[in-house]
Write a structure and sequence with these properties.
The protein is of the alpha/beta class. It folds into two domains: about 5-55, no CATH class; about 65-235, Vaccinia Virus protein VP39 (Rossmann fold), CATH 3.40.50. It has helices at about 5, 20-25, 35-55, 70-75, 80-90, 125-135, 165-170, 175-185, 210-220; strands spanning about 95-100, 115-120, 140-145, 155-160, 185-195, 220-225, 230-235. Strands 3-2-1-4-5-7-6 form a seven-stranded mixed sheet, with helices on both faces.
């Protein structure tokens, strides 16, 4: 068994695409590892993957939108959320959902029927989304994609980037998020952020000043939609 498969032996990491895991191994010398060295590498990579990928996944079974912490929180606001977003952007004919998780299963709440492109690193979830699109006769496609290395995305009216920037930036400023926002071929980008800490405590300042400064510097417009658990920036490029 190679080191990638050993890393993915943990249930919560099992369905991550191999190529994504491989990128976390590039800084290590993997030749002639001792058992102790291999164990250290596996532990370190698992810790990073849990932060980037496993944070919002749950082991809960049941309806798709309840399996993901973020989508479960949005169940009570989806209809109102999409109404507010599309009141700003207009009803989209095409949507791009980056780091989608199971968010595409909220399609019935959109209030319109756009073509839907969904991207994530979970093989299982991508397969489930494609099956859902097929069964419900939704024009759409789900594919594996590492947001740290995007290439040739379809041009769309609206792109969703829900609760992804912290994982993209990894606490190292916001350069990677800025690069991603510039590269997304969309007229509008909706980026969201939690308003509570992981312990459930309300943040003192839930607004992201850096996002507002970034938009002003790049000459982009933005409007803010705020709910109890999540803050949405609707950005016009």
């Amino acid at each position: 068994m190679d080191i990638i498969q050993k890393i993915k032996q943990k249930k919560e990491l099992a369905d991550i695409d191999d190529t994504f895991v491989k990128k976390f191994l590039t800084k290590y010398k993997l030749e002639n590892l001792t058992p102790k060295q291999e164990k250290i590498i596996i532990k370190e990579v698992r810790q990073k993957l849990r932060i980037l990928y496993g944070l919002f996944r749950t082991k809960q079974k049941g309806p798709m939108l309840e399996r993901h912490a973020s989508t479960r929180e949005r169940l009570g606001i989806y209809i109102n959320l999409y109404k507010k977003i599309f009141a700003i952007t207009g009803n989209p004919k095409t949507i791009l959902d980056l780091g989608c998780g199971v968010n595409p299963f909220s399609y019935p709440y959109l209030g319109c029927k756009p073509k839907y492109y969904a991207y994530d690193i979970s093989v299982d979830e991508i397969n489930e989304i494609n099956e859902y699109f097929k069964e419900e006769k939704i024009k759409g496609k789900a594919e594996i994609l590492d947001l740290l290395n995007i290439d040739k995305l379809p041009s769309v009216d609206v792109a969703f980037l829900f609760k992804m920037t912290d994982m993209i930036d990894q606490g190292k400023g916001h350069k990677k998020t800025e690069e991603l926002l510039k590269a997304i071929p969309a007229k509008w980008i909706v980026a969201s952020f939690p308003t509570k800490t992981m312990s459930g405590k309300r943040m003192n300042v839930p607004h992201r000043n850096w996002m507002e400064w970034l938009c002003r510097r790049l000459g982009w417009s933005y409007e803010i939609i705020e709910f109890t658990n999540e803050l949405f920036y609707v950005i016009g490029k």
